[in-house]
Amino acid sequence: MATQVTKDTKIGELLGISADVAPVLFSIGMHCLGCPASQMETIEEAAAVHGVDADELVNALNKKIEEANA
């Protein structure tokens, strides 16, 4: 069973779960995935900063993780 992420998952944890999510993050304008601030930011905080719905972002990330693990 694939790991499910939530709005409270930190970006650093997320990238550890699956690097395949990087294109989803790039698509919202989050290009500095390696910077220290992004590593401690939650998915919900990243969504707010980049003006996207956190629930939609979580759904897109979980879908990408599921596809990567298929």
Fold blueprint:
Blueprint: H1 11-17, H2 22-27, H3 36-40, H4 43-49, H5 54-68
Name some characteristics of this structure.
70 residues, mainly alpha, 5 helices, 57% helix, globular
Description:
The relative contact order is 0.25. The chain starts with 10 loop residues before the first helix and ends with a helix. Helix 4 packs across helix 5. The chain has helices spanning 11-17, 22-27, 36-40, 43-49, 54-68. The chain has 70 residues and is mainly alpha-helical.
Strand content: under 5%
Helix content: 55-70%
Radius of gyration (Å): 11 Å
Structural class: mainly alpha
Q: Low-confidence stretches at least 5 residues in length (pLDDT < 50)? A: none
- Summed up, the helix count is 5
* Integer average pLDDT: 89
Shape assignment = globular
SSE order = HHHHH
Let me know the largest β-sheet: none
How many strands? 0
Terminal-residue CA separation: 10 Å
